[in-house]
Amino acid sequence: MIHIVTGKIDSGKSTKLMELYETIDKGDGFVLLKTMDNGKPVYYDAYRLSRKTRCRTIVREDMITDESVAFAIGPYRFLTSAVAWINREMTELLQTGTRPLFFDEAGILEINKKGFYPLIKAIVESDADLYITVRTPLVEKFLETFNIQTYRIVGD
User: Fold this and answer.
1) What phi, psi does 145 have (nearest 5°)?
2) Which of 60, 69, 128, 146 is deepest in the core (most CB within 10 A)?
């Protein structure tokens, strides 16, 4: 079953995903933790739920150093090393039968078959129990992109 944690920008989707993980008390995956400066996000760290480890994943373009960038959207740059880590870890969780899986978040990149699209597609096609965050205005396109027929909305 696909469980979609939805809401607007800054509505607490990531926090809700973490709460679900703690309530269910099994499974594994990633949540993005945002760091703000003067009211705007400057970077996001991917936080591995079971291990409580984090890795700088997304950086504003004006904060980027010499790190390799895997892909970008607007002013945000996804760091190649972090993207590889998330893909590797999530693929291992999928292959070892860890359930449910938690992933934060599917957005425009994935709807346009970029970003983490291959990873999410593999999870959806596996019929794994997945909790995933998607902004409310993107839910319909997300369902269409990944051909999801059976799902549950959590939020909004």
Assistant:
1) -60, -40
2) 146
Whole-angstrom distance, CA of residue 47 vs CA of residue 45: 6
Angle at 99 between CA 94 and CA 103, to 5 degrees: 70
Per-residue confidence band for 78, with pLDDT thresholds at 50, 70 and 90: very high
Q: What is the pLDDT of residues 100-129, one digit of tens each?
A: 999 999 999 999 999 999 999 999 999 999
Distance CA 29, CA 94 (A): 10
Whole-structure pTM value? 0.96
Domains identified in the chain, total number: 1
What is the extent of the structural domain holding 139? Answer: 2-155
The three-state DSSP-derived secondary structure of the chain is CEEEEEECCCCCHHHHHHHHHHHHCCCEEEEEEEEEECCEEEEEEEEECCCCEEEEEEEEHHHCCCCCEEEEECCEEEEHHHHHHHHHHHHHHHHCCCCCEEEEEECHHHHCCCCCHHHHHHHHHCCCCEEEEEEHHHHHHHHHHCCCCCEEEEEC
